[in-house]
Amino acid sequence: MRAILPSGHSMTFLSLISNKKLLKAVADSGYHNPTPIQQQAIPAILAGSDVMAGAQTGTGKTAAFALPLLSKLDDNNYQIKKIRVLVLTPTRELALQVYKSFEDYGNYTHIKMAIAYGGVSIKPQVKQINSGAEVLIATPGRLLDHIENGSVSLQDLQCLVFDEADRMLDMGFQAEINNILKHAPKKRQTLLFSATFDDAIV
Ligand code: AMP
Question: What is the largest CA-CA distance in the chain?
């Protein structure tokens, strides 16, 4: 049952997340209360549901998916490190922001993140991915380069996140995304964040 709080009472992160390492990182970030999207998305993501959320930048959407996904990875503590979470972003700037957020929230865990975007040498990215990354934040084109090279396998992927999905389509990444989906397991969790929802996104 979901508790409905009387107005004036604010929810805390403690009621959403039990992982102490993540709660400590949230406190370090200076967050006191979860934002509305965090209150709604965190329990759903922890429960394994697919989520489509209308969320603009500034709503706290990154923590809304990063915290529950890191919580699951930390609880599982997989001995064999594979890419289990993939976040697709339309731009390198957003990829860097999301990567920084995962690094901050995962600060007290041993989970490793990797980032991949185009316009720079691919080699350091391959090295970072191969050093035990479980979370990959990537732009679509460069991710496909990695898949074609064999430097990324999505075989063990558990969760695929589309961040700013509407911008990804606006920027013409439809074909790349379809191609990436062919390499991802059918049985997985999918999360989609978008400022707008039209037929193409759905
Ligand atoms: P985002 O929508 O993910 O781009 O986040 C927008 C900004 O809100 C970022 O600077 C976050 O650090 C911040 N933020 C995220 N969650 C919270 C929260 N619960 N309380 C205060 N600030 C937050």
Answer: 54
